[in-house]
Structure formats: structure tokens, C-alpha cells
Design a protein that fits this description.
Blueprint: H1 7-14, H2 18-26, H3 43-54, E1 74-83, E2 112-120, E3 123-124, E4 130-132, E5 135-140, E6 142-146, E7 159-163, H4 169-187, E8 196-201, H5 213-216, E9 220-221, E10 224-230, H6 240-256, H7 261-274, H8 277-296, H9 310-316, H10 327-349
Helix pairs in contact: 1-2, 3-8, 3-10, 6-7, 6-8
């Protein structure tokens, strides 16, 4: 594979001219591929991933027509660093236009903010109007401090917005209790039935568990019940935000080209608000298709993200709200998980 990283090396390997190789690429005989570095998956992790996906399928549908839950009672949360700028920014210039000159104090210490984002699945009425856009909020881990001395940028005493340098369980717990829960209560549709909300998060050390003593004092409020659950380890493809929504926000932020950290915070929030609910809805559909790939590959991650032509299906009126899982994959994974569980239980008794 090392001899296939550019057209010239590939042409030399095939004993062809570079122009011939380029024509083969144009004809789609050859294609370029960017190989991502994926997290390693152990056998235990594979079984956990399979079990997690199987629990997303409605129990009564499994024997004959496995179908995923609508997931309308699920909220995905995650944290992400957003950088003030990229090390390299591509733009298109006119022939005689001067090249932009971007400067910064250091290429290795670009200012950044960490944000917690929470999303649910958007809802649409019978006429196709958006009732709920699914965007519950994006919350920066910041604090305000008064400037200690006068400088060319500000006078002494001016409040400055500074990022929290270390996001730990204390900061995460406060964010979820003081920001996330009120946002869900405010934006959740009032006519929805039982309000049991499952909050999916990854296994970061800064996250709290459902058994957290302080969380236990707040997880039931005003008819809502908030249940914290963890996605499988080493599985960013099981979170809506890592799966595609963060990337959409990032692309909009770099178009705004913020100059200061205050501009960055506003740019992130504006980009979050500007994204169309259909973009978020499509990522929820992709999550169900990713679940199918996990089942087909027995919990492994050696697959490409599926592209199911959601736009074409929507134009034709055939876009499903709930994806069906392949029966053979569900049966094989159920049997494989049961066998693995029995072996581990037998080992534990010895």
C-alpha cells in the first residue's frame, strides 16, 4: 500500500504513464481512498457493541421483522474542542489576488473552547413541518474573570471570557444539572407521552454515572425522568455527534473565520443554530444504518459508513422513519452473544 499513495508512485508500480493512471481514475476504474485510523476492538468490546445495537431493536419485532425503535426519547451528549482556526485553510483566489497572510502566536497553541452539545431526534408533523428541531443546546465550558491590568486590548476590570482549562466531573455534573436538564424541560414537546429521557454519553472519565449521589437528587423533575446510559467503549460511530453532526458544525465555523475567542464562542453557537434540522435527522437515520453494519460485522468496526441515498428516498417519499435490521444478522449476533455469555459465566464459576 505504501506504493499507492500518489499517482506517480502508482503509475510506476503499474508500469504505466501518470496520464494513463489519471484517465483510469476519471473512468472510475481506480479510486482514491483516505484510510482513517480506527480504535482497536477487543472481543469483549465487539460483544458489547452487538448487545448495544440489539437493544435498539424492538423486542416484539425480532423474530420476523427486526425494526429499530424510533429513538424519540433519546438524547445524545458529547464534548468537543473547537479551535479558533485551522493550521491550514484552503481558499480560492483570483489570478492576481494577493494571498492572505494569517498569523498566530503559536501553531501548537491555537486558542480553543470546549463545548457540551445535546441533541435529540427532530420531529415532523403530518404536513412535513418541523415541530421540534432536536437541538437542545450547546454549552461552553467557560468562566468570566475581570482583567487584572490595563492593556492595549482592554481596560482593567473588563470581564473576559476564558475557557475552563480542566473539564472534570465537577464541571460536567454542574453543566448537566444547571444547563442540560433545564434545556430539555424547556424544549421538549409537551404533548409527548411518558417523559422518560435516556441520555447517551461516552465513557470519558469526566462523565458521571446514574448512581452519582448529586445526580440522584435531580434526575426526577416535573414529570421528567432522566436516565444516564453509556455507549459502548471505542465506539464513536454510536454517538450522533461524533457520527456527523460535529463535522457539520466545524465546517460552518471555519467559514466564519473568527478572530478572537469571544468570536469563536459566538461562531460555534451561530453554526449550531444555522444547521437545518434535516441534517440532524439524517444523522439519526445513519445511526440506524450503522447499527446494521455492526451486526453484519459481528461487532467489529471494519466497515465503511453507509450512504443510503437518503435525499433520493425522501424526494420519492420512501424515506423510512425506522430502519429494519437484516434478520440473519440479528439471529447470528443473538446466538453469538448468548454463547459468549455462557462461556464467560462458566469461567466465572471455576
Amino acid at each position: 500500500m505504501g506504493d499507492r499513495t500518489c499517482i506517480i508512485d502508482l503509475a510506476r508500480m503499474l508500469n504505466l504513464s501518470p496520464s494513463t493512471v489519471w484517465r483510469l481514475i476519471k473512468r472510475k476504474v481506480l479510486k482514491a481512498h483516505s484510510s482513517p485510523l480506527c480504535p482497536g476492538i477487543s472481543e469483549t468490546c465487539k460483544m458489547t457493541r452487538m448487545r448495544w445495537v440489539l437493544r435498539l431493536i424492538m423486542d416484539y419485532s425480532i423474530p420476523h421483522d427486526p425494526t429499530y425503535y424510533g429513538m424519540f426519547d433519546v438524547v445524545h451528549i458529547d464534548e468537543k474542542w473547537f479551535y479558533l482556526t485551522q493550521k491550514s485553510q484552503r481558499v480560492y483566489l483570483a489570478n492576481n489576488e494577493p494571498k492572505p497572510h494569517r498569523i498566530g502566536k503559536s501553531r501548537t497553541k491555537i486558542p480553543k473552547f470546549m463545548f457540551m452539545e445535546a441533541v435529540a431526534r427532530p420531529r415532523w408533523d403530518d404536513d412535513g413541518n418541523c415541530e421540534f428541531d432536536g437541538k437542545l443546546g450547546i454549552f461552553p465550558f467557560t468562566n468570566s474573570a475581570a482583567a487584572k491590568r490595563t492593556s492595549k486590548n482592554r481596560v482593567k476590570g473588563t470581564l473576559e471570557t476564558k475557557p475552563v482549562k480542566s473539564v472534570n466531573q465537577i464541571a460536567t455534573r454542574a453543566m448537566m444539572i444547571n444547563m442540560l436538564i433545564p434545556a430539555i424541560k424547556e424544549k421538549w414537546l409537551p404533548h409527548v407521552g411518558e417523559k422518560v429521557i435516556y441520555i447517551i454519553q461516552d465513557n470519558a472519565k469526566a462523565h458521571i454515572l446514574q448512581s452519582d449521589p448529586e445526580w440522584q437528587q435531580h434526575y426526577k423533575q416535573d414529570g421528567f425522568t432522566f436516565v444516564l446510559t453509556q455507549q459502548p467503549a471505542n465506539s464513536p460511530d454510536c454517538n450522533i455527534l461524533d457520527l456527523g453532526f460535529f463535522r457539520s458544525i466545524q465546517s460552518l465555523i471555519h467559514k466564519k473565520m473568527p478572530k478572537t475567542v469571544e468570536d469563536l464562542s459566538g461562531a460555534v453557537i451561530d453554526a449550531y443554530k444555522e444547521l437545518h434540522p434535516k441534517t440532524l435527522s439524517n444523522v439519526w437515520m445513519t445511526l440506524q444504518y450503522v447499527g446494521n453494519e455492526i451486526l453484519k460485522h459481528k461487532g467489529d468496526n471494519n466497515y465503511q459508513l453507509p450512504h443510503n441515498k437518503k435525499k433520493n428516498l425522501e424526494d420519492e417519499g420512501n424515506l423510512p422513519e425506522q430502519v429494519k435490521a437484516p434478520i440473519w444478522a440479528v439471529n447470528e449476533c443473538t446466538q453469538l452473544y448468548d454463547e459468549w455469555k455462557q462461556i464467560n459465566e462458566a469461567r466465572g464459576k471455576r
